[in-house]
Amino acid sequence: MKSETVKVALTKARVNALPVPAAGRAYTYDTRTPGMCVCTTATGTRTFYLYRWHSGRPERKCIGRFPDLSVEQARAEVRRLTGLMVQPDFDPQNAKRAAREEATLGEV
Which run of H or E residues covers position 100? Predict the structure, then answer.
């Protein structure tokens, strides 16, 4: 069952007041910054994400947890990442691939 899309202007007070789902996750999208959303889990954890379509596929990038990261800081990071995504040679998976290919402590 697909839940309805909730869009609000995110503020510190609104993020604090987001209802905790009984099970699973609930996503609330920001009306001020396209692609920014907050994921609220059943345990009450709130995490900021960038959700965009890139190269014909949806990409969800974790920005950080609330309240360690403020709404304004999350917006700035979403704008920065969105700027990177519009570049023709950008591949969001490159950083993950590079990290996996690095030598581990055990290999060194």
Answer: helix 94-101
Task: Single out the residue of 37, 41, 32, 44 nearest to residue 59, CA to CA.
Answer: 37
pLDDT tens digits along 22-72: 999 999 999 999 999 999 999 999 999 999 887 778 888 899 999 999 999
Q: Which of 11-20, 65-74, 99-108 has the lowest mean pLDDT?
A: 99-108
Domains and CATH numbers, the chain: 6-100 (3.30.160.390)
pTM of the model: 0.79
